[in-house]
Amino acid sequence: MGGQLMRVHYALDPLRFLDPGDRPETGYASFLRHQLDAGDQAVFVAEKDGAVVGYVYAGVEPLSWKELRDRAGFVHDIVVIDDERRTGVASALMAAAVDWLAAQDVPRVILWTAHKNLGAQALFERLGFRRTMIEMTREI
After folding, report:
1. Which residues in the chain land under pLDDT 70?
2. Residue 104: per-residue pLDDT
3. Would you call 64 exposed, middle or buried from its count of C-beta atoms within 10 A (0-12, 13-18, 19+)?
4. Can you say whether the dihedral through the CA atoms of 75, 15, 67, 117 is positive or negative?
5. For residues 88 and 93, what is the distance between their CA atoms, to the nearest angstrom?
6. For the chain, which domains are there?
7. Of 42, 55, 29, 37, nearest in space to 109 by CA
8. What span, in angstroms and rounded, lies between the C-alpha atoms of 34 and 20?
9. What proportions of the chain, in percent to the nearest 5, are helix, strand and coil?
10. What is the dihedral of CA 124, 56, 16, 112, to 10 degrees?
11. What is this structure's pTM?
12. Which residues have CB under 8 Å from 27's CB, separation 6+?
């Protein structure tokens, strides 16, 4: 599903997002395994009939002077397979991630979403997230 995530983002804006190449699943799986070794990151999966239909990857981020923010929870990725979208899977995954982050005693949860990903933005707003920053990119 990490490969799916990469392909979707690349299709939304190939200048901004990493080219997934031929086998993004291998690289993304390696990255995710490395992140989980840190201990302050978590992945929650949703299953249906024994098959994984979605996951969310979240972690605790330290205070950042660069971003002018205090320690925070961060939802890095959420992916749900096409057939299970709009069935409550994403909401349940987000609830699991937010509950875990709350247990880590962070004061807030932050996430980023692609500018063109209107469906994800609508979901996040329904779940109580508000817009706070706008990333702008210029190619050189």
Report:
1. none
2. 97
3. exposed
4. negative
5. 9
6. 39-126 (3.40.630.30)
7. 42
8. 19
9. 35, 25, 40
10. 40
11. 0.91
12. 21
